[in-house]
């Protein structure tokens, strides 16, 4: 499976979409079989098709083409649960301040707990 294919499959699944639903989001401009071929490494999308796919998944094109070896989240693309969290955070800038604080307090508390249990 190609890097693009595995990332596509994981983010599609994290969004709870079937290949058919993804194809429908792209107004059928990319067939279900071609999407399957991309996911399974049998084909590579053109940059134009990759832009359509990224837009349908509300994900930047760079997500699919960045070098995962240099990315601190290199294994994240292979973790559907993590991708679901990333999708939930896509609109973080639009959250109200209380929700942002709550999330940040939770993360800080989680770090303190983790640090204190690894002593």
Automatic annotation (TrEMBL):
Do the record's keywords include Thylakoid? no
Which Pfam families does the annotation name? Answer: HTH_3
Keyword terms, alphabetized: DNA-binding
Q: Does the keyword DNA damage apply?
A: no
Occurrences of domain HTH cro/C1-type (ranges): 8-64
Q: Which SUPFAM superfamilies match?
A: lambda repressor-like DNA-binding domains
- This chain's protein is named Helix-turn-helix domain-containing protein
Q: Which organism is it from?
A: Clostridium moutaii
- Please name the taxonomic classification of the source: Bacteria, Bacillati, Bacillota, Clostridia, Eubacteriales
